[in-house]
Design brief:
- The chain is built from 15 helices and 50 strands.
- The chain is of the alpha+beta class.
- α8 packs across α9 and α11 runs parallel beside α12.
- The chain is globular.
- The two termini are 55 Å apart.
């Protein structure tokens, strides 16, 4: 949530407000650096240009053969050695490297032996090496035995399934091969560049090659960054990667851009730098709120991914034009190690699974968090909150969570309430709990000075510090603030205490368990800071510059919040799973938080771009993603709002949100027919929750996206690789099943064009209805044109799918828990279908003790069966009250459907139904 502002000095409370409100404008390019304005990117792009233009370029780097050997860590196999960088004066810089192997994955790390460093002693003199500590799981699946050959000028390794890697000493080149064919070539264009330590007084001629530039090495000329002391001078790292035979690249969120990454030759590169970018532009490579430096290259028989393990400001150039059959990327980070993973597999699903084994998969979220969330800046008081709560019931619209933005807190002092507006939080939470509803409220990392919390942070020395190593004071919503340093291990216990499960904790409603957290502004956003963020020479725990840790800071903050919430009922085996929403994130954030796309606008282009943004997040390992339904800024037309709800029900995270100056727009405000259409869309979301929850279970175990791009299921169809306005929900990527959705995102649309990516039968499933059986089939992939009214959500059910639904209206997910299931079976062209259903209590961590069930369904035209394939006997017994109340069977051969009412089937038993013929039937029992 945000309004734009400029740097405001001479702050008083009234001047803060006046200053902020005086600059309510869209994002301006001058607020944030371009590559040309960022010294390290400017220098490395210049270097790349010079190297490419010089056919006789002599690389500065080589691996010293005598240094190469096997690592001594008994926990993993590795090759170690030293890369030497030759300087113009013939001196050399030592760059120690390590190459290790995980399952189907190679990790390369390059450091620098820094000598004679003279910087203020408040800083660590090492290159930042702890990004992986935050991004990775604690125990990595390193391989201990790898077939290796060390030769005079080369090292060769064999690993995984038909994979190998070849390391050439000069020029330095690393080639990853699959079945002997190159897949990824590291340093293919010799763009390796490690800006080594030098002092301001050193002669540049002794340190710069003819291809290098000295632009902004020891100063920052950008207008808001001129006070940056740059204590280490130039220390960027750059490297190029060629993807052989690949022309489609995905990932590197967050950008308001297409799913298939664009060529950036001659234009702006993609930037990864977490910033508070209000009213961001669409079709843009500008930095946004989150960063996942994960890039996936896909072709029919192979998928390769690069994970760049660096949390500093990063720019990425994509080149798809130089070689028609290959793509390349050039990565440039301001400082830190050269540290990256290359993952190779047959499919995107395999690569996502391997990536998840390293960084973790998404949390299995509590069921309520997959329901509908109602939010705005702000609901005014307890009466307002409970009135909104009652109106949902009055209009028979299900919802699960109401949200409070910053105005709930006394003078925006987090961990307090405005007592006159919210006199009894526990009572309010109890009232919401009567119908299974939850409250989410906001706590940001900036803490107002002058009250107990900020005083505690300062006295306990757990703040972000300035370059003198004193608590940094900046400005944000409360005015003058300090920032919690969540990278400091001592901050966790203090953070835990603020969320403690205790009848005395007024802030958390005593021992209320229907309260969850929203971490906003954690890029971090600093109103008077450079690029609206923290000064880069600020200091974190361990003496690390903020410059080095910027992109991972948001993760450390929301992870601290998640950990604190998880400890609230630590002795209770039925304790609630926490829910945390974060705006800033990094690789690994998926383990503890959901994300949303930030401060969008109430315009059609923002509705349209939300789909590729959420898809990109999913293929990059963070599937619990969504966008503000209706747009945060502005006032959507009734048509736009309706279409956004019809799209938003498919976001894994489904929340409506609005700016403080936007008119109220809860679903009933628009009136008829819009209210009924929005109600129907929300009810459709709730009926599909068993499908969505099952998809989240699969994502939490094997890393697949919840909302899948078309190409993910159809790798042999190259025409599907750039489609990002339709997607799959449910079903299986392996089997190519599920619901194919094409939301309407154009104003005044009366028809849509839907791409059917194969020759499989598809059943019309518009609005989740099957009143008539309409079938689409052809001998090959094809487009269909479908007429739509404002009521319509274009949906196709892929042949071969079985969906488990809950169709009864309930006010919240908690009240649906014991409702019966309905099955929808869509037979494929071979007369077969299959599907699965994951069940647990939807609330606690008991699933980790095997208290869950995984039910498999199969069907032919004359036999339907169900059986539990994974479940503990004790938990299976607890499901005896869950029944299947209806089965709808769609038969492709005849175009008929069979509807079986009240088949008297228990979800926890093995069962079969035999059907005598394929005539359309509808009766109570078979």
């Amino acid at each position: 949530m945000h309004i734009h502002r400029t740097n405001c000095v001479g702050w008083t409370n009234w001047w803060v407000l006046l200053c902020l409100l005086s600059f309510v404008t869209a994002v301006k390019d001058h607020t944030f650096k371009t590559c040309d304005q960022a010294g390290f990117c400017h220098r490395n792009r210049h270097f790349a240009s010079q190297v490419r233009q010089n056919a006789n370029y002599i690389p500065q780097y080589h691996i010293e053969g005598s240094s190469v050997g096997l690592g001594t860590d008994p926990g993993k196999f590795s090759v170690i050695g030293t890369i030497l960088k030759k300087l113009p004066n013939d001196a050399t810089v030592e760059l120690p490297f390590e190459i290790s192997v995980l399952d189907n994955t190679v990790r390369v790390t390059v450091d620098e032996n820094r000598k004679g460093i003279n910087v203020p002693n408040v800083y660590s003199t090492k290159r930042y090496s702890e990004t992986s500590k935050w991004a990775f799981l604690a125990d990595l699946p390193y391989q201990k035995d790898v077939k290796n050959t060390i030769e005079k000028n080369r090292v060769s390794l064999e690993y995984g399934q038909d994979l190998s890697v070849q390391i050439d000493f000069y020029p330095v080149k690393i080639t990853v091969l699959k079945k002997g064919e190159p897949v990824v070539v590291v340093n293919d264009q010799n763009l390796l560049n490690v800006e080594h330590w030098r002092s301001r007084s050193d002669d540049s001629e002794n340190h710069l090659s003819p291809e290098e530039s000295d632009y902004d090495m020891f100063e920052d000329s950008f207008h808001s960054s001129k006070e940056d002391s740059l204590p280490f001078g130039p220390e960027a790292v750059g490297l190029d990667f060629a993807f052989k035979g690949f022309t489609h690249l995905y990932g590197i969120p967050e950008h308001a851009d297409s799913l298939d990454l664009k060529d950036t030759t001659g234009s702006l590169p993609y930037r990864l730098f977490n910033v508070d970018i209000f009213e961001y532009e669409t079709d843009s490579r500008m930095s946004m709120y989150g960063t996942i430096p994960f890039l996936m290259a896909v072709k029919p028989d192979t998928t390769a991914a690069l994970f760049w393990i660096n949390s500093a400001d990063t720019f990425i150039d994509i080149d798809k034009n130089s070689n028609i059959e290959d793509s390349s990327s050039h990565w440039i980070s301001e400082n830190g190690l050269l540290d990256f993973l290359i993952i190779v597999g047959d499919t995107p699903a395999q690569v996502n699974e391997k990536y998840g084994s390293i960084t973790g998969n998404t949390q299995l979220p509590p069921m309520f968090s997959l329901g509908y969330h109602q939010c705005r800046w702000n609901y005014n008081d307890e009466t307002d909150v409970l009135d909104i709560n009652a109106k949902f019931d009055e209009h028979q619209i299900p919802y699960d969570t109401i949200w409070l933005d910053i105005e709930y807190a006394d003078q925006k002092k987090y961990f307090t309430w405005q007592n006159e507006k919210f006199p009894d939080p526990k009572r309010m939470l109890s009232e919401l709990d009567h119908t299974g509803r939850n409250l989410v409220f906001i706590v940001d990392p900036h803490i107002k000075t002058g009250y107990s919390v900020s005083k505690d942070l300062i006295s306990k020395k757990i703040t972000i510090n300035d370059k003198t190593n004193s608590s940094y004071h900046g400005h944000c919503w409360p005015g003058e603030s300090v920032w919690v340093d969540s990278m400091n291990p001592n901050s966790q216990s203090y953070w835990d205490s603020k969320f403690e499960w205790s009848p005395k904790n007024h802030f958390m409603g005593g021992e209320s368990d229907n309260i969850h957290l929203w971490n906003d502004m954690n890029e971090p956003s600093v109103f008077n800071g450079p690029e609206d963020s923290s000064p880069r020479d600020n200091i974190h725990y361990g003496g690390w510059e903020h410059r080095s840790v910027h992109n991972v800071y948001g993760l450390t903050f929301h992870e601290a919040t998640y950990n604190a919430l998880a400890k609230r009922q630590i002795g209770n085996t039925n304790r609630e799973r926490p829910f945390v929403l974060t705006r800033a994130y990094y690789a690994g954030s998926q383990r503890t938080a959901a994300m949303w796309t930030g401060d969008n606008m109430s315009k059609w282009e923002y509705l349209k771009i939300s789909i590729p943004m959420v898809l990109t997040s999913g293929v990059s390992g963070m599937p619990f993603a969504g966008a503000d339904v209706g747009g945060f800024f502005g006032n959507p037309s009734k048509e736009l709002l309706t279409r956004w709800y019809q799209t938003g029900i498919w976001y894994p995270f489904f929340r409506a949100h609005a700016h403080i100056d936007s008119r109220r727009r809860e679903p009933w405000v628009a009136g008829e027919p819009y209210t009924s259409i929005m109600r129907d869309a929300i009810k459709l979301r709730y009926s599909l929750l068993p499908v969505i929850y099952t998809s989240f279970y699969e994502s939490s175990t094997i890393g697949t996206p919840v909302m899948r791009p078309i190409f993910y299921d159809h790798l042999d169809n190259l025409d599907s690789y750039s489609i990002d306005d339709q997607f799959y929900i449910g079903g299986s990527a392996v089997e190519g099943s599920g619901i194919l959705v094409k939301p309407v995102t154009d104003e005044g649309a009366t028809e849509v064009s839907i791409y059917i990516p194969n020759d499989e039968v598809h059943y019309d499933y518009t609005n989740g209805q099957l009143d008539e059986v309409k079938i689409y089939r052809a001998k090959a992939a094809h487009y269909i044109t479908k007429a739509v009214s404002l009521n319509d959500i274009p949906m196709l059910l892929t042949g071969g799918s079985i969906l488990a639904l809950k169709n009864r209206y309930r006010r919240s997910t908690k009240l649906m828990k014991n409702d019966p299931y309905s099955l929808v079976i869509a037979l494929d062209s071979q007369g077969k279908a299959s599907g699965s259903l994951y069940i647990d209590d939807g609330e606690s961590f008991l699933y980790s003790n095997d208290e869950y069930a995984n039910v498999a369904f199969t069907s032919t035209s004359n036999l339907i069966s169900g059986t539990s394939v994974l479940a503990s006997a004790k938990y299976l017994d607890s499901l005896s009250g869950l029944e299947i109340e209806k089965i709808t069977l769609l038969i492709e051969v005849s175009g008929h459907k069979a509807v079986i009412h009240k088949p008297q089937l228990k979800i926890n038993t093995k069962w079969e139904i035999r059907i005598s013929d394929d005539r359309e039937i509808e009766h109570d029992e078979l």
